[in-house]
Protein: alcohol dehydrogenase (NADP(+))
Amino acid sequence: MLTVNAYAAPSATEPLVPTTIERRDVGPHDVLIEIAYAGICHSDIHTVRGEWGEISYPQVVGHEIVGVVTEVGSEVSLHAVGDRVGVGCMVNSCRECENCLAGAENYCLNGNTGTYAAVDKDGSITQGGYSTHVVVVEDFVLKVPESIPYEAAAPLLCAGITTYSPLAHWNAGPGKKVAVVGMGGLGHMAVKIAHAMGAEVTVLSQSLSKKEDGLRLGADHYYATSDDETFEKLANTFDLIINSVSAKIDIDSYLKLLRLHGTLVSVGAPPEALEVHAFTLFDNRRSFAGSSIGSIAETQEMLDFCAEHGIAAEIELIDASQINEAYKRVLNSDVRYRFVIDVESIK
Ligand SMILES: [Zn+2]
Ligand SMILES: [Zn+2]
Structure:
Protein backbone atom coordinates (compact mmCIF):
# COMPACT_ATOMS: atom_id res chain seq x y z
CA MET A 1 0.00 0.00 0.00
CA LEU A 2 1.03 3.54 -0.72
CA THR A 3 -0.10 6.31 1.65
CA VAL A 4 -0.73 9.54 -0.26
CA ASN A 5 -2.00 13.05 0.44
CA ALA A 6 -5.53 13.91 -0.60
CA TYR A 7 -8.47 16.26 0.00
CA ALA A 8 -11.53 14.41 1.26
CA ALA A 9 -15.10 15.08 2.35
CA PRO A 10 -15.46 13.88 5.98
CA SER A 11 -19.27 13.89 5.70
CA ALA A 12 -22.11 15.13 3.50
CA THR A 13 -22.26 18.49 5.26
CA GLU A 14 -18.67 19.39 6.17
CA PRO A 15 -16.10 21.12 3.96
CA LEU A 16 -13.35 19.07 2.30
CA VAL A 17 -10.16 18.75 4.37
CA PRO A 18 -6.58 17.58 3.78
CA THR A 19 -5.99 13.96 4.75
CA THR A 20 -4.12 10.84 3.64
CA ILE A 21 -5.51 7.78 1.83
CA GLU A 22 -4.16 4.38 0.80
CA ARG A 23 -3.55 3.41 -2.82
CA ARG A 24 -3.22 -0.27 -3.68
CA ASP A 25 0.12 -1.79 -4.63
CA VAL A 26 0.83 -1.65 -8.36
CA GLY A 27 -0.46 -4.96 -9.77
CA PRO A 28 0.79 -6.63 -12.99
CA HIS A 29 -1.69 -4.63 -15.16
CA ASP A 30 -1.65 -1.39 -13.14
CA VAL A 31 0.04 1.95 -13.62
CA LEU A 32 0.89 4.39 -10.84
CA ILE A 33 0.16 7.98 -11.84
CA GLU A 34 1.56 11.05 -10.11
CA ILE A 35 -1.35 13.47 -10.51
CA ALA A 36 -0.57 16.99 -11.71
CA TYR A 37 -4.04 18.50 -12.15
CA ALA A 38 -7.62 17.54 -11.27
CA GLY A 39 -10.74 19.28 -12.56
CA ILE A 40 -13.78 20.05 -10.42
CA CYS A 41 -16.97 18.62 -11.92
CA HIS A 42 -20.48 19.37 -10.66
CA SER A 43 -20.83 15.60 -10.10
CA ASP A 44 -18.11 15.81 -7.44
CA ILE A 45 -20.33 18.13 -5.41
CA HIS A 46 -23.50 16.04 -5.86
CA THR A 47 -21.54 12.96 -4.78
CA VAL A 48 -19.85 14.29 -1.62
CA ARG A 49 -23.13 15.81 -0.48
CA GLY A 50 -24.90 12.47 -0.86
CA GLU A 51 -27.33 13.95 -3.39
CA TRP A 52 -26.94 11.01 -5.77
CA GLY A 53 -27.32 8.41 -3.02
CA GLU A 54 -25.60 7.55 0.25
CA ILE A 55 -21.84 7.13 0.16
CA SER A 56 -19.24 6.18 2.76
CA TYR A 57 -16.88 8.79 4.21
CA PRO A 58 -14.22 10.04 4.07
CA GLN A 59 -14.53 10.28 0.28
CA VAL A 60 -12.07 11.75 -2.21
CA VAL A 61 -13.68 12.83 -5.49
CA GLY A 62 -12.34 14.11 -8.83
CA HIS A 63 -12.65 12.35 -12.19
CA GLU A 64 -10.84 14.76 -14.48
CA ILE A 65 -7.29 13.64 -13.83
CA VAL A 66 -4.02 14.25 -15.67
CA GLY A 67 -0.55 13.26 -14.54
CA VAL A 68 2.59 11.32 -15.31
CA VAL A 69 3.18 7.58 -15.09
CA THR A 70 5.79 6.88 -12.39
CA GLU A 71 5.58 3.07 -12.16
CA VAL A 72 4.14 0.27 -14.28
CA GLY A 73 3.23 -3.33 -13.47
CA SER A 74 5.16 -6.26 -14.96
CA GLU A 75 2.52 -7.00 -17.65
CA VAL A 76 1.80 -3.40 -18.69
CA SER A 77 2.24 -2.75 -22.41
CA LEU A 78 0.15 0.35 -23.13
CA HIS A 79 1.99 2.91 -20.99
CA ALA A 80 5.53 3.61 -19.84
CA VAL A 81 7.16 5.57 -17.03
CA GLY A 82 7.19 9.26 -17.98
CA ASP A 83 4.07 9.13 -20.19
CA ARG A 84 1.60 11.96 -19.85
CA VAL A 85 -1.74 10.32 -19.13
CA GLY A 86 -5.30 10.94 -18.02
CA VAL A 87 -8.07 9.19 -16.12
CA GLY A 88 -11.75 10.05 -16.54
CA CYS A 89 -15.01 8.94 -14.95
CA MET A 90 -14.39 5.18 -14.86
CA VAL A 91 -11.49 2.94 -13.86
CA ASN A 92 -12.84 -0.48 -14.82
CA SER A 93 -15.87 -2.41 -16.08
CA CYS A 94 -17.08 -6.04 -16.11
CA ARG A 95 -15.38 -6.69 -19.50
CA GLU A 96 -17.80 -9.52 -20.37
CA CYS A 97 -21.29 -8.07 -20.90
CA GLU A 98 -22.68 -7.38 -24.36
CA ASN A 99 -21.88 -3.66 -24.13
CA CYS A 100 -18.33 -4.13 -22.82
CA LEU A 101 -17.63 -6.65 -25.59
CA ALA A 102 -18.94 -4.08 -28.09
CA GLY A 103 -16.40 -1.56 -26.78
CA ALA A 104 -18.99 0.51 -24.92
CA GLU A 105 -17.75 -0.04 -21.37
CA ASN A 106 -19.28 3.30 -20.34
CA TYR A 107 -22.61 1.50 -20.80
CA CYS A 108 -21.46 -1.67 -18.97
CA LEU A 109 -24.61 -3.64 -18.11
CA ASN A 110 -23.12 -4.58 -14.75
CA GLY A 111 -22.19 -0.97 -14.06
CA ASN A 112 -18.72 0.38 -14.83
CA THR A 113 -16.46 1.08 -11.86
CA GLY A 114 -16.61 4.82 -11.18
CA THR A 115 -13.36 6.65 -10.46
CA TYR A 116 -14.72 7.56 -7.03
CA ALA A 117 -17.39 6.38 -4.58
CA ALA A 118 -17.72 3.03 -6.37
CA VAL A 119 -16.97 -0.50 -5.18
CA ASP A 120 -13.68 -1.57 -6.76
CA LYS A 121 -12.81 -5.14 -7.83
CA ASP A 122 -11.09 -5.73 -4.46
CA GLY A 123 -14.13 -4.53 -2.52
CA SER A 124 -12.62 -1.19 -1.52
CA ILE A 125 -14.29 2.14 -2.33
CA THR A 126 -12.63 4.00 -5.20
CA GLN A 127 -11.06 7.37 -4.32
CA GLY A 128 -10.76 10.10 -6.92
CA GLY A 129 -8.29 12.63 -8.23
CA TYR A 130 -8.03 15.29 -5.49
CA SER A 131 -4.92 13.39 -4.49
CA THR A 132 -1.23 13.17 -5.32
CA HIS A 133 -1.30 9.66 -6.84
CA VAL A 134 -3.70 7.07 -8.20
CA VAL A 135 -3.30 3.44 -9.28
CA VAL A 136 -5.38 2.45 -12.33
CA VAL A 137 -5.52 -0.63 -14.54
CA GLU A 138 -3.69 0.21 -17.78
CA ASP A 139 -6.54 -0.08 -20.27
CA PHE A 140 -8.58 2.59 -18.47
CA VAL A 141 -5.72 5.10 -18.73
CA LEU A 142 -5.73 7.60 -21.62
CA LYS A 143 -2.81 9.15 -23.46
CA VAL A 144 -2.87 12.96 -23.18
CA PRO A 145 -1.22 14.50 -26.27
CA GLU A 146 1.71 16.80 -25.46
CA SER A 147 0.25 19.66 -27.50
CA ILE A 148 -2.73 20.14 -25.16
CA PRO A 149 -1.86 22.55 -22.31
CA TYR A 150 -1.48 20.28 -19.31
CA GLU A 151 -3.91 21.89 -16.85
CA ALA A 152 -6.51 22.63 -19.55
CA ALA A 153 -6.51 18.94 -20.53
CA ALA A 154 -7.99 17.73 -17.23
CA PRO A 155 -11.61 18.80 -17.88
CA LEU A 156 -11.57 17.00 -21.23
CA LEU A 157 -11.71 13.70 -19.31
CA CYS A 158 -15.32 14.38 -18.23
CA ALA A 159 -16.71 17.60 -19.72
CA GLY A 160 -14.90 16.99 -23.02
CA ILE A 161 -15.97 13.40 -23.62
CA THR A 162 -19.51 13.95 -22.31
CA THR A 163 -20.11 16.47 -25.08
CA TYR A 164 -17.85 14.96 -27.78
CA SER A 165 -19.61 11.59 -27.68
CA PRO A 166 -23.14 12.78 -28.60
CA LEU A 167 -21.77 15.31 -31.11
CA ALA A 168 -19.86 12.51 -32.86
CA HIS A 169 -22.66 9.95 -32.56
CA TRP A 170 -25.29 12.29 -34.07
CA ASN A 171 -22.87 13.48 -36.78
CA ALA A 172 -22.34 17.14 -35.94
CA GLY A 173 -20.40 18.55 -38.88
CA PRO A 174 -20.55 20.77 -41.96
CA GLY A 175 -24.12 21.58 -42.99
CA LYS A 176 -25.53 20.69 -39.55
CA LYS A 177 -27.11 23.20 -37.20
CA VAL A 178 -26.24 22.42 -33.59
CA ALA A 179 -27.61 24.21 -30.52
CA VAL A 180 -25.97 24.04 -27.09
CA VAL A 181 -28.23 24.70 -24.12
CA GLY A 182 -26.25 26.16 -21.20
CA MET A 183 -22.81 27.82 -21.25
CA GLY A 184 -21.14 26.13 -18.28
CA GLY A 185 -18.41 23.50 -17.94
CA LEU A 186 -20.09 21.09 -20.35
CA GLY A 187 -21.66 23.72 -22.58
CA HIS A 188 -18.48 25.63 -23.34
CA MET A 189 -16.78 22.38 -24.41
CA ALA A 190 -19.76 21.48 -26.59
CA VAL A 191 -19.43 24.86 -28.35
CA LYS A 192 -15.71 24.39 -29.00
CA ILE A 193 -16.03 20.79 -30.19
CA ALA A 194 -19.11 21.32 -32.38
CA HIS A 195 -17.40 24.31 -34.00
CA ALA A 196 -14.23 22.28 -34.60
CA MET A 197 -16.36 19.54 -36.20
CA GLY A 198 -17.59 22.13 -38.69
CA ALA A 199 -21.18 22.58 -37.51
CA GLU A 200 -23.05 25.88 -37.35
CA VAL A 201 -23.29 26.46 -33.59
CA THR A 202 -25.94 28.35 -31.62
CA VAL A 203 -25.81 28.89 -27.85
CA LEU A 204 -29.08 29.01 -25.94
CA SER A 205 -28.29 30.51 -22.55
CA GLN A 206 -30.48 32.04 -19.85
CA SER A 207 -29.05 35.51 -20.46
CA LEU A 208 -26.59 37.16 -22.82
CA SER A 209 -23.98 37.63 -20.06
CA LYS A 210 -21.56 35.11 -21.63
CA LYS A 211 -22.29 36.05 -25.25
CA GLU A 212 -18.83 37.46 -25.95
CA ASP A 213 -17.21 34.28 -24.63
CA GLY A 214 -19.58 32.09 -26.60
CA LEU A 215 -18.75 33.79 -29.88
CA ARG A 216 -15.02 33.75 -29.07
CA LEU A 217 -15.17 29.98 -28.36
CA GLY A 218 -16.76 29.26 -31.73
CA ALA A 219 -20.51 29.93 -31.59
CA ASP A 220 -22.06 31.52 -34.66
CA HIS A 221 -25.20 32.71 -32.85
CA TYR A 222 -26.17 33.36 -29.24
CA TYR A 223 -29.69 33.72 -27.85
CA ALA A 224 -31.18 34.31 -24.41
CA THR A 225 -33.78 31.74 -23.38
CA SER A 226 -35.31 34.27 -20.97
CA ASP A 227 -36.59 36.00 -24.12
CA ASP A 228 -39.75 34.23 -25.36
CA GLU A 229 -39.11 35.49 -28.88
CA THR A 230 -36.08 33.17 -29.05
CA PHE A 231 -38.37 30.13 -29.11
CA GLU A 232 -40.60 31.58 -31.82
CA LYS A 233 -37.70 32.69 -33.97
CA LEU A 234 -35.80 29.38 -33.77
CA ALA A 235 -38.75 26.96 -34.17
CA ASN A 236 -37.91 23.99 -36.49
CA THR A 237 -34.26 25.03 -36.86
CA PHE A 238 -31.76 22.55 -35.40
CA ASP A 239 -30.52 19.11 -36.41
CA LEU A 240 -29.09 18.50 -32.96
CA ILE A 241 -29.50 20.11 -29.56
CA ILE A 242 -27.11 19.28 -26.71
CA ASN A 243 -28.77 20.06 -23.38
CA SER A 244 -26.04 20.54 -20.75
CA VAL A 245 -28.28 22.02 -18.07
CA SER A 246 -28.54 19.94 -14.88
CA ALA A 247 -31.68 21.71 -13.66
CA LYS A 248 -35.22 20.94 -14.79
CA ILE A 249 -36.01 22.88 -17.97
CA ASP A 250 -39.12 22.84 -20.19
CA ILE A 251 -37.85 20.16 -22.59
CA ASP A 252 -40.95 20.41 -24.76
CA SER A 253 -40.25 24.00 -25.75
CA TYR A 254 -36.66 23.04 -26.71
CA LEU A 255 -37.85 20.00 -28.71
CA LYS A 256 -39.92 22.35 -30.84
CA LEU A 257 -36.68 23.95 -32.02
CA LEU A 258 -35.72 20.70 -33.81
CA ARG A 259 -36.18 20.46 -37.57
CA LEU A 260 -37.07 17.26 -39.49
CA HIS A 261 -35.44 14.18 -37.88
CA GLY A 262 -33.70 16.35 -35.31
CA THR A 263 -32.50 15.01 -31.94
CA LEU A 264 -32.28 16.63 -28.52
CA VAL A 265 -29.68 14.93 -26.31
CA SER A 266 -29.58 15.54 -22.57
CA VAL A 267 -26.17 15.26 -20.91
CA GLY A 268 -27.03 17.35 -17.84
CA ALA A 269 -28.59 15.35 -15.01
CA PRO A 270 -31.48 17.04 -13.20
CA PRO A 271 -32.81 15.00 -10.26
CA GLU A 272 -36.43 15.52 -11.39
CA ALA A 273 -38.15 13.80 -14.33
CA LEU A 274 -38.41 15.78 -17.56
CA GLU A 275 -41.85 15.95 -19.23
CA VAL A 276 -42.27 15.36 -22.94
CA HIS A 277 -45.50 15.40 -24.98
CA ALA A 278 -45.80 12.71 -27.65
CA PHE A 279 -47.20 15.21 -30.16
CA THR A 280 -44.04 17.33 -29.91
CA LEU A 281 -42.07 14.22 -30.94
CA PHE A 282 -44.51 13.36 -33.78
CA ASP A 283 -43.89 16.70 -35.47
CA ASN A 284 -40.72 16.53 -37.58
CA ARG A 285 -40.24 12.93 -36.28
CA ARG A 286 -38.11 14.34 -33.46
CA SER A 287 -36.03 12.26 -31.01
CA PHE A 288 -35.28 12.86 -27.35
CA ALA A 289 -32.11 11.05 -26.23
CA GLY A 290 -29.50 10.82 -23.50
CA SER A 291 -25.77 10.14 -23.52
CA SER A 292 -23.31 9.16 -20.79
CA ILE A 293 -19.58 10.02 -21.05
CA GLY A 294 -17.90 7.85 -23.73
CA SER A 295 -15.98 4.62 -24.13
CA ILE A 296 -12.23 4.51 -23.49
CA ALA A 297 -11.57 4.30 -27.25
CA GLU A 298 -13.84 7.26 -27.91
CA THR A 299 -12.23 9.25 -25.08
CA GLN A 300 -8.84 8.70 -26.72
CA GLU A 301 -10.35 9.75 -30.05
CA MET A 302 -11.66 12.94 -28.35
CA LEU A 303 -8.26 13.77 -26.85
CA ASP A 304 -6.58 13.30 -30.24
CA PHE A 305 -9.32 15.41 -31.90
CA CYS A 306 -8.79 18.23 -29.37
CA ALA A 307 -5.02 18.11 -29.94
CA GLU A 308 -5.49 18.20 -33.71
CA HIS A 309 -7.85 21.20 -33.50
CA GLY A 310 -5.95 23.02 -30.76
CA ILE A 311 -8.80 23.03 -28.28
CA ALA A 312 -9.01 22.44 -24.53
CA ALA A 313 -11.06 23.69 -21.59
CA GLU A 314 -11.16 27.31 -20.39
CA ILE A 315 -10.06 27.02 -16.80
CA GLU A 316 -9.44 28.80 -13.50
CA LEU A 317 -6.46 27.20 -11.76
CA ILE A 318 -6.76 26.96 -7.97
CA ASP A 319 -4.90 25.54 -4.97
CA ALA A 320 -6.51 22.73 -3.00
CA SER A 321 -7.17 25.15 -0.11
CA GLN A 322 -9.66 26.92 -2.41
CA ILE A 323 -11.77 23.81 -3.19
CA ASN A 324 -14.59 24.65 -0.78
CA GLU A 325 -14.85 28.20 -2.10
CA ALA A 326 -14.77 26.84 -5.65
CA TYR A 327 -17.69 24.51 -4.84
CA LYS A 328 -19.79 27.51 -3.78
CA ARG A 329 -18.91 29.30 -6.99
CA VAL A 330 -19.76 26.24 -9.14
CA LEU A 331 -23.18 26.10 -7.48
CA ASN A 332 -23.65 29.79 -8.34
CA SER A 333 -22.52 29.17 -11.97
CA ASP A 334 -19.70 31.60 -11.19
CA VAL A 335 -16.80 29.95 -13.04
CA ARG A 336 -15.40 30.46 -16.52
CA TYR A 337 -15.57 27.59 -17.22
CA ARG A 338 -13.95 24.89 -15.13
CA PHE A 339 -11.97 24.95 -11.89
CA VAL A 340 -8.79 22.88 -12.00
CA ILE A 341 -6.82 22.02 -8.86
CA ASP A 342 -3.06 22.36 -9.02
CA VAL A 343 -2.20 19.11 -7.26
CA GLU A 344 1.24 20.50 -6.37
CA SER A 345 -0.69 22.23 -3.56
CA ILE A 346 -1.67 18.85 -2.04
CA LYS A 347 1.89 17.44 -2.01
ZN1 LIG B 1 -17.82 14.86 -14.30
ZN1 LIG C 1 -19.78 -4.83 -18.82
Remarks:
- Residues 93-94, 97, 99-100, 108-110 surround zinc ion (ligand 2) (CB under 6 Å).
- The two ends are 18 Å apart (CA to CA).
- The CA atoms of residues 96 and 102 lie 10 Å apart.
- The mean pLDDT is 97.
